[in-house]
Amino acid sequence: MAISDLAGPTEIVDLDRRHVLAPWKNQGAERGAPIVRAEGVHFWDAAGRRYLDFTSMFMFANFGHTEPRVVRAIQEQAATLPVVASSFVTAARAEAGRLIAEVTPGDLNRTFFSPGGAEANEAALKMARDLTGRPIIIARYRSYHGSTMGAMTLSRDHRGWPFEPGIPGVVHAPTCDPYRCQFAPPGGRCADCAAHCARSLEEVVLANGPDRVAAVILEPIAGPHGVIVPADGYLEAVRQLCDRHGILLIADEVMTGWGRTGRWFAVDHAGIVPDILTTSKGLTGGYVPMGATVVREPLARQWDDRPLVHGHTYSGHALGCAAIVAAIGVYRDDRLVERAAELGEVLLSGARTLMDRHRSVGDVRGKGLFVGVELVRDRRTKEPFVDPARRTPSPSAKDRVLARCWDDGVYIMPGQGSAILLAPPLTITREQIEEGLAVLDAALAVADAETAA
Fold first, then answer.
1. How far is Cα 254 from Cα 41, in angstroms, rounded to an integer?
2. What gap in Å lies between CA 166 and CA 160, rounded to an integer?
3. Which domains does the chain possess?
4. Which of 3, 49, 139, 232 is the most buried (most CB within 10 A)?
């Protein structure tokens, strides 16, 4: 049976339920709507209903859907050389590597290609141990680095609990979260969050022996847990900490890369250069699954005279690399990074207006077109609607807010806990941002009804 022969949405959903294990959900729960096409910042379900994509389909469709220049590049590559063994060189792979080196900061110059973001982080973990000869990796609580075993061990949130103990040699430090800083007075803000959190990280380094720590891995902005923007100066302090102890700094830019925060990469806001940068999602706009682990030139030279003992069947996949080349061209030609910075001010300002209007909004933060809205029952105590450490009745107030947005034609992504993520394509217009925020404005009344007066 060809795909086009399927009778309709009911048959599609029935086949999916009987034969597909859907990610991150109870398999008996309702399946997502059958989606049949997408264009620009919109997509359509099988009933013909249009939705505004306020998620970039989980933050990879940075330049929107069905971008013709990227589609054409994939078609042309598929017609000549769709796939080749990773041991061979292709023009697409070489050019993709060159262009990535041009836009990544500093001397990040050599790229290992993988099938996705989790695999990019797995590569970084292995590289750090190989390059330093040290066993310990320090990650942070309330982070997310992927769902493979090593990446999930790094992540250390509730989604990894069923698979513990995970891989050995990974320890965790607190995330720098100015809204919920562990050093803040009850209900208040920490007066020196960056310094306190950097010092807390260094205590973990010292407790594990600095000469045993291979790397610190962090998201410059922690995405799934609510777009947690660290305090000013924190990333610079972490870079200095790593330099003091000869520790590699790994920046996970799977979500934050490719213009999402109004810069090519989120580390650019702090002016720092990580030793290893991992990325995926916007790397191809999601059109072909690809990840990249980019290493500073002096470090990469260690493998010039000995093997890099890591690989994938699909490393440097020809279709994916062709998509990367075309995608970087789109970012540059359409000045999407600059556009994200400009329209990000509109999105952040609009979200902060919602905070003024709704007592269920405890905090709003973000950079570029990457904004987190944290819902709370009580602004004074910061009590969340959803606590992943405890069983929360479903659907929660957050679930009902997002369901109301969906019913009104706007797809908004849930973050972990009580967070809502606003991350539309970088091609969105001011008017479309205002449309999405207006729908969220109306939906937040659902959460307001469950807050403390």
1. 21
2. 8
3. 33-63+335-448 (3.90.1150.10), 68-333 (3.40.640.10)
4. 139
Q: Quick one: angle between helices 68-80 and 318-333, nearest 10? A: 150
For residue 112, give the H/E element and its range. strand 108-114
What is the SS3 assignment for 318-330? HHHHHHHHHHHHH
CB 171 within 8 A of CB 214: no
Structure tokens at 166: 């995970």
The rounded average pLDDT for each run of 10 residues, N- to C-terminus, in the chain (453 residues) is 66 88 87 91 94 95 97 98 95 98 98 97 98 98 94 89 92 95 80 93 97 98 95 98 98 98 98 98 97 98 96 95 98 98 98 96 97 95 84 82 97 93 98 98 95 74
Spatial separation of the C-alpha atoms in residues 368 and 260, rounded to whole Å: 6
Phi, psi of 187 (to 5 degrees): 75, 0
Report the distance separating Cα 203 and Cα 201, nearest Å: 5
CA triplet 199, 216, 142: central angle to 5 degrees?
80
The percent helix, strand, coil of the chain (3-state, each to 5) is 40, 15, 40
DSSP character at residue 222: B
Q: Which residues contact 247 (CB under 8 A, 6 or more apart)?
A: 132, 205, 210, 213, 214, 215, 216, 241
DSSP secondary structure string, 389-408? Answer: TSPPPSS-HHHHHHHHHHHT
SS3 call for 384: strand
Residue pair 117/291 in contact (Cβ under 8 Å)? The answer is: yes
Structure tokens at 257: 């890369």
C-alpha 373/C-alpha 43 separation (Å) is: 23
> How long is the chain?
453
Alpha-carbon gap, residue 252 to 121, rounded angstroms? 7
48 vs 34: CA distance, rounded Å: 10
C-alpha to C-alpha distance for 278 and 143, rounded to whole angstroms = 15
Place of tokens 């972990």: 416
Contacts of 25 (CB under 8 A, 6+ apart): none
For residue 42, the surrounding DSSP H or E stretch is: strand 42-45
What amino acid is encoded at 277 in this protein?
L
* Structure tokens, 398: 């957050």
